[in-house]
Amino acid sequence: MADQIPLSMTVNGQTRRGLGEPRLTLADFLREQANCTGVHLGCEHGVCGSCTVLMDGEAVRSCLLFAVQADGADITTVEGLAPDDETLHPVQEAFRDCHGLQCGFCTPGFVVSVAAFLETNPDPSDDEIRHGIAGNLCRCTGYQGIVAATRQAAATMKGSRQS
Amino acid sequence: MSQTAAAARYVGQSVKRLEDPRLVTGHGRYVDDIVLPGMLHAAFGRSDLARAAITRLDTSAAEALDGVHAVCTGADLNSHNDSLRASLYPPESPAPPANMLADGDVRFVGDPYVMVVAESRYIAEDALDLVEVEFEPLVPVVDYETAAESDHHVHPELGGNLAHDLPVPNPATDEAFADAAHIITETWHQHRQTNVPMETRGIVASWQPHAGVMEVWASTQSPHELQLVGARVLGIGEHKMVVHFGDVGGGFGQKMFLGREDMAVLVVAKLLGSPVKWIEDRRENLLASNHARIEQMSVKMAVGEDGSFLAADLDQLEDDGAYPLGGPATPGAMATMLFPGPYRMGPVSWRARTVYTNTCGRGAYRGPWQMESVAREQMIDRVAREIGMDPLELRRRNVLTPEDLPYQVSTGLHFETTISPEQTLEQAAEMIGYDEFRAEQADARKEGRYLGLGMALYIEPTSMGMGPLGTESAMLRVEVDGHVNVFMGTGSHGQSLETTIAQLVADELGVRPGDVTLHQGHGSGYGFGTGGSRSAVIAGSAARAAASGVRDKVVAIAAHLMEASADDLEVADGVISVKGTPAASMTLAQVAATAYQNSDALPPGTEAGLEHTARYKAPPSTHSNACHICTCELDPGTGKVTLLRYVVSEDCGVLINPMVVDGQIAGGVVQGIGGVLYEHAVYDESGNPLASTFLDYLVPTAAEVPELQTGHVVVPSDTPGGHKGTGEGGAIGAPPAVFNAVADALAPFGVYPNRQPLDPNTVLSLIASASN
Amino acid sequence: MVGLLAEHGDDAKPLAGGQSLVPLLAMRLTRFEHIVDLNRVDELFGVSADNGGVRIGAMTRQAAVETDDAVADRAPLLHLATPHIGHFQIRNRGTIGGSIAHADPASEYPAVMLALDGVAEIASASGTREVPAAEFFESTFMTAVAPDELLVALRFSAWNQLAGFAFDEIARRSGDFALAGAAVGIGTDADGRINRAAVGMLGVGPTPLRASSVEAALMGLAASDADPAEIGRLAADDMDPIGDVHASVEYRRQAGSTLVGRVLANALAQVSTEAGNG
Q: Is B745 domain-assigned?
């Protein structure tokens, strides 16, 4: 077994330290050592998007990164989006309003991806939404509620930027 | 039932889901989130060959690896396998050998033959690489169409590959065929697909020595099936089998039954005395969980001059794979019985067969019998084309109308008066703008563009009332502070039962949905779980009855305490008040506190406490129905099909939560779209699976799916709430609707597809075959 | 970095964005004693405009290529091709050098590099050498980069003439690898006569390919006279497709040449627009 390497990164605003072999994935580090079990593993080969997190503000597949590569980085997971325990992020609120989830397993990856997508595409057309979220798979909703939720969140977030 | 029916305040509303705040913030608790002290991790070594003898298996190097606690083979585990059968499968029927791990030979690619238990999943997989194994390849049985005649046997113990053969001849069809104006035949093929829940299978098992208790967390649709069969596997009583039910990331039928791996984990956890976790990875899920829809139905139909359906002769053949999940069931028999569907149809004769092959076992997948709709609706479009009639007109001439009901189907089924196929057909045709589309299609064809429209109409038998499927119970308790806990045998894995059951209870008992918490798994009464489109009707009726029982008691106690007449009281949002005099009221919490903590103040003869258990037994079947219509454009240069519009008109009776109903339909529809256009769990001729990752098994993304519109026809069923099941329907109607749309777009080329998937390659070769 | 590669040779593998390599490692389909992570090597990142073209550091993320103005201006085909790579989450990590060194015949950048006659800068312990695109892609997943070498940058020259560019591909789903794709650049003289034609193809051979029959047929034609569908059909002869679970040899040849024609039509329309504007 390879040596354990000390790891340190900011996860949802808090410094998290841990130890891991070089092959430890970022997803496994976040789940097992940073208590972020909202990071879900749906394929572990970079297709389903369930493990999507923000690394230094950009949406990435945490199953395709080694934890050591994120040493020193600023990570936001789905647990870190809501401002407090009583309030939901506009994307989370929209997923609830629009029935953008059923079993909820793909949801953390979708919520993080949509939040990142809307940062760079604040006013997307339906077609842009559908291609923008095509990097995440859902097997329950048929995407109808997810597209609607993305539409709603775009409107809400645009409103709050303007006010 | 209470004397005064509660007004529906919440049923019928798109109440926001109670599940969602935790799920959208990442605070759900799925099986992989369970961590126990000293927990070990299991991984399975699986066959790379479809059929082979194991000539050497040496686990010593794997056992020697640091961090490895056990390496088990079939010889170690299979002695514990006395009765692994699923409850739905009759004990006397022949079945493949009930082994958890392959022993002596492997029978499909993915067949587990060794299991490592280690301190981490990483180490367990390292150890698998150290297992030394040699195989002697044997000729595999891969093609199910010829499996029955093969000299090579998937399970030598059974003496042949034919699992079931159910011929049901009907001499009356002969006469109908003799007199028919048209006789049309075709063999319709579906292809191998798989459920693909986004959460794979998984289980954590923790044995408590001396207590003799097995504590289990699992990704399951049916906690009681796990409790019952798991206890049997372990040789313990069900009272010692504690099954915790957390969040479950989808199943679509895959998680109704225990897999061989689940059983192996239970046995090993007991042997080792340490908690063991197994989380299936995606390749395992695609290779070795279950496959479905590998089937064909040959249809010969007699049609009258006016297009009437005079008779049908059916021959259904389905691939069971090697180890069918839940037993070698025969949905083919159901598919053939249901073939007449929502139409007047003369006599039907049929035969249904299943065969074993050296492939991944068949399992239930959303609407396991939907071949009936696939074969019938595709056949109707074919008939329409052959006799030169519009497919909508042909359906209109044959569809069951309210005047036809109740209707005795020639195959033995009985349709009550509460179905509405004609209404959904007309509603869907109007929603899609049928005549306008046909005009648009004709114009497009002049410009060299190829549009198509497909429709499918079906009746779905939901909430079946037979055998272990027939009942569910609800144990409902108002706690001292007035909040409500309800314990049920369901296994909600996306169906929103925490919300919809709460809506039903809220209306019946007179509380708010948010005051009700649904508990599933340990502590609930036996039920078959969530599948078979059964929870709304069967579990819902049980919840309603339990709530009603408690409500009667609440009203009696409140009447006594308030010195009012029970008939004058109403209960809403947790407050009991005198009708018309809202000031005269007390809260449910006050009634509950009295019932538990001041029982001397209760009316004379009233039992202390505020709880009620009810069990509901369903009628044989509660039928829902729907019509799907979609349109597409086909690119003749690339063979790519783009879906343009998709409408569904459905009747699931009284809707509990319209948002949830629409969500169930949409999910099923997109699985159907995936099946026809994208997904294919294909094997090569040697039995090697070629779609073992998400790069090759193509689940549709948002970009492949059109906007879906739903319409609702509401004819209440005869069950207590008037509901009908709706979970599976989308996946029943979508495949033939999409197929028919593509076939329609191909019509100008004069070609007739009869098999899926209709991927670009297939479409282009169909066009090429036409020009040749 | 190149020192580590020199030391470990075949036992070491450079890790760029990891969007292709890590899945293979996760599924235990490949393994290396040493993974050399390039993600903290600053000099491998970034786009610079250099004498009439662009130089793109190998570790430049695809997302950065997608939005870079110099790339859009000087190597528009790269700009047009990038949104077809996977999904935005993939492009946030995936790099241009990783794509080109991985040399998947169905991926976008290799075909674009070939069409544009890009140049690879390859470093080793003994120095840096340059390899033109035509010599870079040796066979499936095999390139001119030796185990002890590292691809450090790619250079593309701008087309200083009237030109039109177009890219498209056929994929099963949004973001999937292409069943067939085409990257087309058409340049004309002031009279609108084609004097440069570059047609790269992906997904239709063991490596990315040039459609040289198509290019030859285009040369000297007036851009407004060319029949793209007719000329596109010639591409079938330039292909050497490999069938797989998603599409047969015949499919790739037939649909691929149809696509070449369509992409060619778009490029020709672009060049006409350019000419009209000029």
A: yes
- Domain extents for chain C? 44-157, 162-277
pLDDT at B8: 75
C143 near B CB under 8 A: no
Rounded Cα distance, B487 and B483, in Å: 13
The mean pLDDT of A93-101, rounded to a whole number, is 98
Residue segments in chain C with a per-residue pLDDT below the cut of 70: 277-278
Is the pTM here over 0.95, yes or no? yes
Is the model's pLDDT at B126 over the cut of 90?
Answer: yes
In order of their start, the domains of chain A are 5-79 (3.10.20.30), 90-162 (1.10.150.120)
Rounded to whole angstroms, the Cα distance separating C269 from C278 reads 14
Q: Distance from CA of residue C270 to its chain's centroid?
A: 20
At residue B700, φ and ψ (nearest 5 deg) are: -60, 145
Determine phi and psi for C158, rounding to 5 degrees. -75, 155
**Mean pLDDT along residues B263-282:** 96
Please give the residue range of the domain that contains residue B488. Answer: 20-27+466-617
Cis peptide before C132 (omega within 30 of 0): no
Answer whether CATH 3.30.465.10 is correct for domain C44-157: yes
Q: What is the pLDDT averaged over residues B738-745?
A: 98
According to CATH, the topology of domain C162-277 is: Enolase-like; domain 1 (3.30.390)
ipTM of the complex as predicted: 0.98
Distance CA B136, CA B56 (A): 9
pLDDT category, B580, cuts 50, 70, 90? confident
* Shortest Cα distance, chain C CAs vs residue A44, angstroms: 7
pLDDT for residue B5: 45
In a domain, B307, yes or no: yes
Question: H helices of B615-698, where?
Answer: 658-677
Whether B2 shows a pLDDT value over 50: the answer reads: no
CA C82 from chain center: how many Å? 9
- Give me the count of residues in chain B: 772
Residue in chain B nearest A31 by alpha carbon: B33
Q: How far apart are the first and last CA of chain C?
A: 47
Put simply, the answer to whether B698 touches C173 (Cβ < 8 Å) is yes
Q: Read off the pLDDT of each residue in B53-75 and give the average, rounded to a whole number.
A: 97
Alpha helices in chain C (DSSP H): 2-8, 21-26, 62-67, 69-74, 76-81, 88-93, 96-102, 108-115, 133-136, 212-218, 228-233, 235-238, 249-277
Contact across the interface for B760 and C172, Cβ inside 8 Å: yes
* Nearest CA-CA partner of B622 in B416, B330, B453: B416
Kindly tell me if the per-residue pLDDT of A95 is higher than 60.
yes
Q: Which residue of B has its CA nearest to A133?
A: B702
pLDDT per position as a tens digit, B294-312? 999 999 999 999 999 999 9
**% pLDDT > 90, chain B:** 92
Q: How far is CA C242 from CA B108, C169, C250, C260, in A?
A: 27, 16, 9, 18
Per-residue confidence (pLDDT) for residue B587, from 0 to 100 = 97
Cβ distance B147 to B161 under 8 Å? yes
Measured CA to CA, the distance from residue C140 to residue B429 in angstroms comes to: 51
A90-97 vs A107-120: helix axis angle to the nearest 10? 120
B512 and B430 fall within a common domain:
no
Q: Closest CB to A138: pick one of B198, B248, B708.
A: B198
